[in-house]
Amino acid sequence: MRTVDPLHVQLLRLLRDEGAVSRAELGDRLRMPRPRLLAELQRLVGLGYVAEAGLAASRGGRRSTLVELSPRLRFAAVDLGASSIDVEVVNGRLEPVAAYAESADIRSGPKVTLQRVNELLHKARADGAYERLDAVGVGVPGPVSFRDGVPVSPPIMPGWDRFPVRELLTREHGCPAVVDNDVNIMAIGERHGGVAHSVDNFLLIKIGTGIGCGIYLNGEVYRGTDGCAGDIGHIQVDPNGPMCSCGNPGCLEAVFSGAALARDATTAARAGVSPALAERLTARGVVTALDVAQGAVEGDLTCIQLIRDGGRRLGSVLAGLVSFTNPSMIVIGGGLAQLGHILLAEIRSVVYRRSLPLATGNLPVVLSELGPRAGVAGAAVLASDLAFGEAS
Amino acid sequence: MRTVDPLHVQLLRLLRDEGAVSRAELGDRLRMPRPRLLAELQRLVGLGYVAEAGLAASRGGRRSTLVELSPRLRFAAVDLGASSIDVEVVNGRLEPVAAYAESADIRSGPKVTLQRVNELLHKARADGAYERLDAVGVGVPGPVSFRDGVPVSPPIMPGWDRFPVRELLTREHGCPAVVDNDVNIMAIGERHGGVAHSVDNFLLIKIGTGIGCGIYLNGEVYRGTDGCAGDIGHIQVDPNGPMCSCGNPGCLEAVFSGAALARDATTAARAGVSPALAERLTARGVVTALDVAQGAVEGDLTCIQLIRDGGRRLGSVLAGLVSFTNPSMIVIGGGLAQLGHILLAEIRSVVYRRSLPLATGNLPVVLSELGPRAGVAGAAVLASDLAFGEAS
């Protein structure tokens, strides 16, 4: 691996996050002497990363030249879920210039899934979204060896174990690629442009089909020894609870998750205790976790109780993790974040009651700000960081 | 705060950890050109940090001069427990030149406790252990603001909240001081010279009167936003369990710790179910956690069962933390590490059964190597790092 000049990356990140900046201000902000800055900029213009953008407003003397990231820069951001593909092509400032979202089953395997990703990206090119990509960032719903760019023993991704995801994308698009866990890219997204902006220690809880946790500690994503840190879905919350797909009883995910909630909602609808759910089951033959959210908004007591029970279970796990990590914030994201305030209220209540007062004195428990875009937003950040490092 | 030259600190650490090294080897190891190295060494000799130590064996050409840390260097390492004071004075290589250990009640407050620490250190000086101290490192049994050098809302340390521990020691001994949590200094000790040597991600569980956890992530101690990370004693393990001193029912510490074990052992002795414990209660009027350890060694079934039950409770919490942090090692330390193999076997059994196979594929669960010295050993490392930083 090449050594990366940190000042270099800093310069490109500054232009990414703030847009056009005058040379004079860049020199001040990076504490870089003018001759070195000009040489640096010239090199980056030559590499196609930076472009001039007219003159800045006067600061009293001669007007300084504005520079910005080249308008040609393009990154691809891919968020693979258990049952979805989200793809965005973004410009240097990470603004989407093309976006695609569709249903897909991760269990159809890496070849089928990545072929579809490639098709969507080629379509974006045909539609004029880019001429060439500078980097690709991908999130997958399972543990990842970040160093090797491959999934590692992902429980819900048959056929993906050690599949060379990074290599395949690099070859297909002729640019560097980076692979990470789906929850990590959400956390990166929220920290870069969402509710956790500039927060150094926080946990992002994704509640979707399953439950996972992205971990930011000391300003960095923490991935663990094998890349599977944050796998909180299989923490036991009830030794007498329902059997989990992992073979143990009462895992958090077996008790509260999209799948668990759909199961409990179906039971409630059949038992006739919930008019809201029974109506939906009759109409569509199936009820989902989102029906529970909708039922709760309409005031259905069973739906409200299901969400409260789930929030209590999740809250008890989070209380332990708060005592353990002493974070500055907890962010709730993923599809079931739509369960909204009832869920948040219950989580807060358990966490504040059960953790050390010192650790919860000033601990916001908040909803994701970027919602369904959190994943692709983070994948775009990763892709741009990778490209900026390579440009050094 | 002054900026610290990392190369400087690296040089001093190398001499601390490896002893006398030739100038030629130093230059190679630090990739430092000879003129700069010589200037650097001369400065450090002038500051009294480094001394010459004769000539190295020939590497083929001219023999290179050996350098080592000045034999005059002295650090004080202090480990304050709930009921004990351990003090060591160590030389530059962190070898003890004086050591004191005695019972003390942390609840007697900071003035009484720190006065006793100062008396012990002055006694060490009178005994010829040092002329002056270069830094003091202290661990206390509660949350610490590492930046401010003060305990913060420590639950079992009345009178210590925000007491200026660092300032008082600095003034008394005329050298810089550093304050950390007792479990953190144990983790630092085990990583520097114990079982976790060079392990980047590990958890150190201290089982003493209470239970706490030291956290090493990515090669650094992780302390959390308010300095109270690792407070796992108040994670709930049994909603119907005994009331904890914190006011919540069924905390880990209320179910398994030195105090909880003494309580359960007393009950068992009185109920007549344990001959080993009953005998000790009759003989001394009181039974402790160590009596349970001794009883287990003698084959007393109740004692073995008490340890197994505790190990299962602790194991269930650790299984969750393993899923969350995906560490490379778990180290069990503190006074109750003497419960030994029965405890380890039970913890391993629960952790391996309940965590992701990926996270436990190669996860040693081992006993502390430094035993009761782990704390002072880590405090000495902290003190030397602080002094080396100041020397830059």
UniProtKB/TrEMBL annotation, chains A, B:
Keyword hit for Kinase: yes
Pfam families: ROK
Domain of life: Bacteria
Family: Belongs to the ROK (NagC/XylR) family.
Residues making up the signal peptide according to the UniProt record: none
Gene3D superfamilies: 3.30.420.40, Winged helix-like DNA-binding domain superfamily/Winged helix DNA-binding domain (1.10.10.10)
Recorded GO MF terms: kinase activity
Name of the protein in its database record: ROK family protein (Putative glucokinase)
Organism this protein belongs to: Micromonospora eburnea
Matching InterPro entries: ATPase_NBD, ROK, ROK_cs, WH-like_DNA-bd_sf, WH_DNA-bd_sf
Key words, A-Z: Kinase, Transferase
